[in-house]
Amino acid sequence: MPMSFEDFMAAFPAQEKQPSKHAPVSDDTFFIDTGDVNAQRLRAARTGVEWHNNVRDIVASIVSAGVSDEIIVALAPAITLDGYTVDQTIAELRPMIRGARQKGFGEIGNTEAPAESTPIPKILTLIDDIELTDPKYLIDGLIEEQSLIGLIGPSGSGKTFVALDMALCLATGTNYHGSKASKGLVVISAGEGHKGIPRRVKAWRAHHGKERDRIPVALTNRAADLFDPASLNAFCAEVDKLIQAFGTPKLMIIDTVARHMGGKDENNAKDMGELVKAADRLKQIYQCAIMLVHHTGHSNQDRARGSTAFKGALDTEILVKPKGEHDLIISCEKQKDGPEFDPMQFVKVSVEPAVVLQQVEISRRKTKLSDGEQLAMDTFYEATKGNVASAGLHITEWRPLFNERHTGDNQKSKNTAFSRARSSLTQKGLLKCSDDVYSLGDKAT
After folding, report:
1. Rg of the chain in Å (alpha carbons)
2. How far, in Å, CA of 179 to CA of 162, rounded?
3. CA gap 94, 106 in Å, rounded
4. Counting Cβ atoms within 10 Å, is residue 18 exposed (0-12), middle (13-18) or buried (19+)?
5. What whole-number distance in Å separates Cα of residue 236 and Cα of residue 242?
6. Where along the chain do its domains lie?
7. In whole angstroms, what is the distance from residue 436 CA to residue 69 CA?
8. Rounded to an integer, what distance in angstroms lies between the CA atom of residue 117 and that of residue 105?
9. Are the C-beta atoms of residues 272 and 266 closer than 8 Å to each other?
């Protein structure tokens, strides 16, 4: 909600009454009797007079007074000039805030007052004055706006596939497998896979018919240094430029935690707390959700590796687990404010030049297969190269590969074994058939 002029002026202490050094001295419009020089600067900026200089001086003044970034950014609607968007104004404010903090405090997001005598912003509100609102979701029922999300799973489970699928749905406003997704900029700090990710994006575009759409997803060429103030400032400066073109980010993805620890120990609660603090700082600056992609433990693949401080800090935790050779399941391990979402199962579908995720009905139990049935399923996947989309596989493309691998004494025995295997797989619901074209059934794993 935009902050009113009066609310904003109440957020920091009054200064001596004097005109803004950037306002024209001859114009009485800017000598309003408010008792506060910042009020004069603010009114000048709102009318377009020396906008940048006046806003810069206001920001420097209120940063020194200990006002939080959130309150400062909330001023944006009140000082957005005609012809500009609020996002463009915010993109101008953030470098001013960082510059002021560097001079007075040394770190982004540090809102401690420089002296004990400086008033600290109000933090208490009567419980009856707090408005109750339902959670607001980036992806309906899965992840909330402005939340800290942990996406965890063992190595090779498909964590990055899941994170990228969510990112691309958000960036394009495409429903995430039936759930509505907000549309906006996504920023990915990748510690690895910089060449592989663009290939996956190309495959996703082809699968979803988005080849011609411009997708606002920005990818780093190395892991961002979240612990060095100068490096973090440089990273944020690049994000600010993106905001001018695409608006404020909806989501930032840190992939993986291990690659972003900067030599710190993920088993140490203090070091893990520093990472969470850095993530919270980005969340505060950009008012967006942050997703931390992290490995599960070697001995326990149902919990995040390292200190339990990680899970304790999360609003949402999503577990990714492989199922068979081609599937994965995501499940909700923690949802702080809303109900946990139901598990979802995906199969990796081959789409040039990579693979994409296609949702399938979740497997309830493992169906035991005979040797012949297992060979039939193996050769089915092999013949389709994992591409088990709705087009399916014709029997004439499948039978030769099965017969080649089967150990029968003659062609008749091989054909008989193939006929029995595909018939039983269909009866068990693992495959379905239409006019000799086979595709995955409801119970396929």
Report:
1. 28
2. 14
3. 15
4. exposed
5. 10
6. 5-104, 137-360, 371-440
7. 63
8. 16
9. yes
Phi/psi at 83 (5° precision): 95, -5
Q: Say if CB 313 and CB 148 are below 8 A apart.
A: yes
Query: DSSP strand E in 237-369: where?
Result: 249-255, 289-295, 316-323, 327-335, 344-351, 354-360
Q: What's at 101, amino acid-wise?
A: R
Residue 219 has which token pair?
A: 């990818």
Kindly give, in sequence order, each residue whose CB lies less than 8 Å from that of residue 125, ignoring residues fewer than 6 positions away: none
Per-residue DSSP letter, 181: B
Parallel, antiparallel, or unpaired for β 249-255 and 137-139?
unpaired
Beta-carbon contacts of 357 under 8 Å, excluding residues fewer than 6 positions away, are 158, 161, 162, 165, 328, 346, 347, 348, 349
Partner residues linked to 295 by β-bridges: 153
Can you name the CATH fold of 137-360? Rossmann fold (3.40.50)
Contacts of 197 (CB under 8 A, 6+ apart): 160, 164, 188, 190, 219
Position 424: which residue type?
A: S
Q: In the numeric block, which tokens belong to residue 415?
A: 């054909």
Q: What DSSP element (H or E) covers 134?
A: none
State the number of CA atoms in the 13 A half-sphere of 310 facing the CB: 29
User: Integer distance in angstroms from the first to the last C-alpha of the chain?
Assistant: 47
Distance between CA atoms of residues 199 and 355, nearest Å = 9
Q: What is the DSSP string of 42-96?
A: HHHHHTTTTHHHHHHHHHHHHHHTT--HHHHHTTHHHHPPTT--HHHHHHHHHHH
Q: What is the pLDDT along the chain (445 residues), one digit of tens a residue?
A: 444 555 555 554 444 333 333 333 333 332 233 336 777 788 888 778 888 888 888 888 888 777 778 788 888 888 888 888 888 888 888 888 887 876 653 344 444 434 444 456 678 889 999 888 888 999 999 999 999 999 999 998 999 999 999 999 999 999 999 999 999 999 999 988 788 999 999 999 999 999 988 999 999 999 999 998 888 888 998 999 999 899 999 999 999 999 999 889 999 999 999 999 999 999 988 999 999 999 998 778 889 999 999 999 999 999 999 998 889 999 999 999 888 999 999 999 999 999 999 999 987 656 678 999 999 988 988 887 655 544 578 899 999 999 998 998 899 999 999 999 999 999 888 888 988 888 877 665 4
